[in-house]
Amino acid sequence: MFNQLGVIGCGLMGGSFALACKRAGIVKRVIGYSKSPSTTEKAKRLGVIDQVAESALLAVSGSDIVLIAVPVAATEATFKAIRHLIEPGVLIMDVGSTKREVVDAARRVLKEQVVSFVPAHPIAGKEAAGIAHADATLYSGRHVILTPLPQTSPEL
Asked: Which residue, 70, 72, 102, 106, shows the most beta carbons closer than 10 Å to its own?
């Protein structure tokens, strides 16, 4: 059981992950951040997240698992925004559709903190995007390709 899930990017993928974790009872609390305040407010109204974070950094603060669900092109900036609060033992995952750019950015930005990062590519999605389409069953029965790095901590 995780005490807090921090979701950065509360759209379809991040919102669905949060709902699935809540439904499965593996997180006590979900804090979410999106660049659009209306998205996080809607996520809170819909019960997808329990608390709105005013920044990506605040979504990481106190979280023991963090999901990065932003466009691949925004991943490096997200890593830069959160790297100062990644503590040992915190699991950082992404759901980006490609891995090379994401992994290169993680190595460049996270440096020794890359041990906390497990790149993931869920084979899931919908034609419709956005928090309004988040679904706790989106990942059910789907494959998720995990691509841990050689440096990734085996304890994660």
From this structure: 106
